[in-house]
User: What shape does this take?
Amino acid sequence: MKVGDSYDVKPFNLHGLVGISDRTFEMHVKLYEGYVKAANQLTAKIGEMLKDGRIDHEEMPAYSELTRRLGFEQNGMVLHEYYFGNLTQEGSDHPDRHSLFAQAAENSYGSVDRWKTDFCGVGMLRGVGWAVCSLNPASRRLSNYWISLHEHGHVAGFIPILVMDVWEHAYLLDYKPSERASYIEAFFSNIDWKSVAKRLQLCAPAFVEAG
Assistant: This one.
């Protein structure tokens, strides 16, 4: 970690989504930019502490707090990039039955519909967090997880394939807190299944398009 290392804000243009307003997107992307800025600030501060190749005993409490906070900010940044990256104005609520994702979901759950039921169920859990469909690279099977905050709940070695933000800021301008199910339905209307398939291909090249 070098002093001056930094992350860049990635460009996203998701105006015109179904059921997710432009106001929500604009607010949401500003929040994402805040995570990028915070991750850069923390990276610089930690790098400054490490510039002499050691950490002074007196600096350890500050170093510990900065390092823990960095995990929160970095995961907030990366999860938002996954989330925005798997949405598109030309999305659809169901993957093509011959797609890589459909193949993986059927292998893992028996059917795409059963996978979706589980994913939506995870998204409806009480509290704020994320619903994440992850790939186990060893078995090439999918499974769905609840990620509380940003950094708690990830399975080591598993790779996010589809990410849904269910913090209230993701939908409160469009839906009441009690209407999270309507937001989830809107999310599914905008999924970019091609982006999801690319993630599978990058993580598990052995997947082959069926049909």
Remarks:
- The mean pLDDT is 91.
- The helical segments are 22-49, 60-85, 100-109, 112-123, 180-189, 193-203.
- The chain is about 45% helix and 10% strand.
